Amino acid sequence: MTSTDNGSGKKGRPTPKRKEAESKRIVSSLAPVTTKEEKKRAKANALAARQANRIAYMRGDENALPARDRGPARRFVRNYVDSRRSIGEYFLPIIFVVLVLTLIPIAAVQLGSIALMYSMLLVAAVDGFVLSRKIKKLVKEKFPTEVPKGLGMYAWLRSTQMRRLRAPKPIHKPGDTNF
C-alpha cells in the first residue's frame, strides 16, 4: 500500500481531467521538428545521392558496388564475360520469338519452336558449365590467394543477361583481350 492509500481502496484525490494528464505527459519525439521546406530539401538531397550512387554503380566504381560485385577477381570475371559473346545472352529474345511462334495454330511450328527453346536452354547450360570451369581456372592462375568459390556461377549468370541490361555496364566490347 502507498502512503496516499488510506486502506479503503480510494486514492484520496480526484481523478485528473484528460487535458491535465496529457499536458503532464512528456512527449519525446525521435525526429526533430522540421518544416515542409526542410523535408523537401532533404528529399531532394536523398534523391541526388541515390542518383549519384547509381551512376557510380553503373560505371563500376569499387566503392559503389555491392559486396557481391567487389574485388579484383570479380572485376576480372565481369571483364572476361563482357569480352566474349555467349549463347545465354540471346536466350531471352529467343524465348520471346518462341512465345510468338507458339501462337501460330500449326502444330509443326509450335513443336519446332518449343524444341528450339529447349535446345537453346541446353546449349546455354553447357556453355555456362564450360565458362564456369574456365573462369575458376583463370582466377586461380591470375589471383592465387583468391578463393574461386561462387565465381563460376557469377560468370554464368552475367553471361545469361542481355548485354545492354548488365549492371555494372560492360567496359569491354566482345573480342577485347586486354583486361
UniProtKB/TrEMBL annotation:
Keyword list (alphabetical) reads:
Membrane, Transmembrane, Transmembrane helix
Does Membrane show up as a keyword for this record? yes
InterPro entries from the xrefs?
DUF3043 (IPR021403)
| Keyword Transmembrane helix in record | yes
Give TM segment ranges: 90-108, 114-132
Where are the stretches annotated Disordered? Answer: 1-37
Query: What protein does this entry describe?
Result: Unannotated protein
Lineage at the top is: unclassified sequences, metagenomes, ecological metagenomes
